[in-house]
Amino acid sequence: MPIPNYTILIVDDNSNNLFTLRTIIEENIAARVIEAKSGEEALRILLNETVDLIILDVHMAGMDGFETAAIIKQRKKMQKIPIVFLTAACITGEFKKRGFKTGAVDYLIKPIDDNLLINKINVYLKLNKKDFLLEYFKDMQAIILEREEELKRKNEELEAQKAEAMEANRLLQHYAAELENTNKELQNFANIIAHDFRTPMVNLKGFSKELGNALADLKQILQDAVAHLPAKVQKEANKLIGQDVPDAVQFINSAVDRLDRMIAALLKLSREGRRDMIYQQVDCNKLIKAVLLSFDHQIVQKGIHVAVGSMPTIETDYLALEQIIGNLLDNAIKYLEPSRPGKIDVFCLDKEDEYLFTIQDNGCGISSQDQEKVFEIFRRGGNQEVPGEGMGLAYVKTIIRQLKGKVWCESELGIGTKISFSLPKKPLGN
After folding, report:
1. Which of 43, 101, 167, 398 is the one with CA 20 to 30 A from 258?
2. Whole-model pTM?
3. Which element (helix H / strand E) includes 57?
4. Domain Histidine kinase, which positions (predicted)?
C-alpha cells in the first residue's frame, strides 16, 4: 500500500457513503482518510488534525454541510483547506451560490463517479502543494525586505553624522533604491509564479548580475568618499559596503540560482511525464556499460568497485532506461561512505511477468523515516550535505511509472542502500 502523503477528511452521516468514499480514495491515492459522521465531529477533528482536503456531505442531520463549512472558514488555520461538497440533490444556481459563499471549491453529485472524484481530489491536493511553494517564495521575500530595512537604518545613522558624510550617504541611498527595485522584481515574480516560471527568473538573474557589477564599481568610489570621515563613521561605512551589501547581493544570487535549478528540474520532470515512450529491443548489458563509462572518472578517482550481473535484452524505451540507470548510479556514487572502499552491485532477476533491476551500494544509508520521502519532489534522504535539489529519484519514479513499472527503496543507516525497480515483460503502453 502506498505511504500516505496527504490527509483527507470525509464527512457524511451515512456509514455506507463513508465506506464507499474511503475505499475509492485509498485504492487510488496515497492518503490517510479520517471519517466524521456529523459536522460537530468534523469540527472536533479539525482542532487536532492537519487536513489537506475536506469532502463534505451537504444534507446531514443536525448541522448540515453549509453550516459546517461556514464555521470551518471562520477559523484562520482552516481557511485554506479546500472543501468539496457532496449532494444527491439537483444543483441550482442558488445552491451553488450558497455553497461557494460558505467556502466550497467544488461539488460532486451522488452517486459518485469514481474517476471524477479521484481527478478532483488530485487537482486540489496539487493546488495545496503549489500554495506551499508560494509561501516559501513569500518567506524569501520577507528575508530580503528585512535586509533592506537594515540597510535603510544604517543609511539614517550615516546621515546623522557630519557634513563630510553627505556624499557617501547619497551614494548609499542610491544603492538602497536599486535594492528596493530588486525587491519589487521579486514581488512580481511571486505574484506570477503560478502562470509563468521562466520570464521572471531570467529578469532576476540579469538584474542580480548588473547589481553585482554596479557594487564592484561603487565600492572604490564609496571607500574614497568616506576616507576623510571620522574613524567611527569610516568603520561602519566600510563594513556596510565591504560586507553587508555584498552579502545581500550574494544571498539574492544564491536564491535565484537555486530556484532556477528547481524550476528547470520541474519542467524536465513535467516534459518526461508527457513524453511518448518508443519501445524497442534494448541490450541492457551494453546500455549499463555505456552509462558506467560516463562515470568512469569518478569511479576510478574514488576507487569504487562496481559489479554488474548478467543482464537481459528487453523491450523498453532506450532513453528512459538509460536515464533511470544513470540517475540511480549517480545517487549511489554520491552517497558512498568516504571512510571505506565503495562498492556498487547492479543485477537483474528474471521474474514470470517482469524484470526486477537492483542497484545496491555500501554507502551511508537512509533512515527509515527518510525512506518515505526519497521519491518525492524536492525531498531528500541521507546525507544532506551532498549537493542536489532532491529531484533525481522523483524523476526516476516518473519515468518508471511511464514504463508501467514500480520503484522502491530499502536501506539501513551505516550499511547501504538498495534501490529496486520492476519493468513488465510486455509493456502495456506498447
Report:
1. 398
2. 0.43
3. strand 53-57
4. 192-427
